[in-house]
């Protein structure tokens, strides 16, 4: 079975195209070596996937499958060897006043919203 198809089938990637891109970009390794999307997956191989947020996911292949499976069935096909995901970073103390709004102060003003957009805490205005 192709590596990109297996990564998609066990729900490590949302689409097969994303799995293919990750393999091509070198974010997927088997036994420490970069692999192409067409690499044949074999049971017992250890696959490392580096995600954009910096999280390294390490899994052992337990079985092959023909099609994408539900989340409940995924543990039958892979063993998760990953270290626990690091906790999300807390906001810096300098940004703390922007996060805290007194209860009952109402909607943020136009100036407040602009500041939040500049910091990337609100989506850009359309």
List the topology elements:
Elements: H1 3-9, H2 16-24, E1 28-30, E2 33-34, E3 46-50, E4 56-61, E5 78-80, H3 96-99, H4 110-118
Helix pairs in contact: 1-2
Written overview of the protein:
The protein has 126 residues and is α+β, with helices and mostly antiparallel strands. The chain has two domains: 3-80, Roll (Structural Genomics Hypothetical 15.5 Kd Protein In mrcA-pckA Intergenic Region, Chain A); 90-126, no CATH class. Helix content is 23%, strand content 15%. The chain contains four helices and five strands. Strands 2-1-3-4-5 form a five-stranded antiparallel sheet. Strand 3 and strand 4 form a beta hairpin. The longest helix has 9 residues, at 16-24. The chain is elongated. The model has no long low-confidence stretch (mean pLDDT 88).
Key terms for this structure?
single chain; 126 residues; alpha+beta; 2 domains; five-stranded antiparallel β-sheet; 4 helices
Short description, anyone?
The protein has 126 residues and is an alpha+beta fold.
* Computed Rg: 21 Å
Instruction: Indicate the low-confidence ranges by residue numbers.
Output: none
Count of helical segments? 4
Structural class: alpha+beta
Q: Total domains, how many?
A: 2
Sheet with the most strands, sense and barrel status:
5 strands, antiparallel
| Percentage of residues assigned to helices | 10-25%
